[in-house]
Structures are given as C-alpha cells and as structure tokens.
Amino acid sequence: GSNLAGIxxxxxxxGGNGTxxxxxxxxxxxxxxGGHIGIRMVNxxxxxxxxxxxxxxxxxGSNRGVQLTGPTLLRINVTGNRIKITSxxxxxxxNNGIRLDSTSSSNLxxxxxxxxxxxxxxxxxxxxxxxxxxxxVSGNAVNTSGTSSNHGIVLQSSANNNxxxxxxxxx
Length: 171
Prior knowledge:
Elements: E1 4-10, E2 18-21, E3 24-27, E4 36-42, E5 46-51, E6 54-58, E7 64-79, E8 82-87, E9 96-104, E10 107-109, E11 112-117, E12 124-128, E13 136-138, E14 141-145, E15 151-155, E16 163-165, E17 168-170
Parallel strand pairs: 1-4, 2-5, 3-6, 4-7, 5-7, 6-8, 7-9, 7-10, 8-11, 9-12, 10-13, 11-14, 12-15, 13-16, 14-17
C-alpha cells in the first residue's frame, strides 16, 4: 500500500515533545508500491529527539526515511540514524532519506543515509523543502544513486538561513 509509516508522532496545539530512539523499522519489499515513511512527525512539535534509529525501506518510490512536516516544527534533533531506501524495480523515484517541510531551528547531525534504486530518479539523501529555515545539516554521510537527478543534499528555494557543513556526499 501507500502512505505507510513505521512511527507517527503527532503533536496538537503548540508544544509537544518527546524522544524516538533505538527503534528498528523495516517496511516494504521490492514489489511494494511507494509511499513508505520510517518516522513521520507532524503538527507543531518542539524540542524532540529522533536518535539512533535503524530504518530500512524497500519499495518503489516517494519513500521517506524521516519526514518532518509542519505547519510549525521547532528544535527537532535528528541524530545518529541509519536510513536505507532501496528498490530493484525500475519505476518510481523521489525517495528522500530525511525531508524537512516547515521545520526550523533543528539539527540533522551524524546520520548515515543511503538511497540506492535501480532505474529511478530524483532521489535525495537530505531534502530541505518548503519553509525549512535556520537548520544545521552537519557530519552526515549520504550516498545516493539512480538513473538521473540524484542528489546528496538539496535546499529548495524557500529553505533559508540553513547551515550545511562537514558532510560526506557520494552520488
């Protein structure tokens, strides 16, 4: 199926915090449709740690290892996670190891991300998407592959005032 998440952390109102740590999440198989998400955080969360999780997704496209989606997420620390997205099917694409939407003042540090797909494109290790601002992306190891337009770290035009430093990227 699509839109399957291993862990969903939803905050209501302003606030909400917690820790998601030391989990193993395995979802999909090589014939599964895409839309899988290892850890998904939504709505107004603050001061949350996502640390030392092992996420494996094997599905056809539009998969996310960790997805942080606002409207307002503040001070989320995503550290030391191992994320692997693979597919042997030559369709799909648009896989993101870590994706931030409307997320600010957060840290993506020391994550190991692999997106290796056969015949797919637009795979991004780390994607700072709409209104992702004031974040630090540092010390990550990113390896992406596919047919075309595969990038280690991507900042969309509306992602402002971010610091990207000391990462190792292989495409």
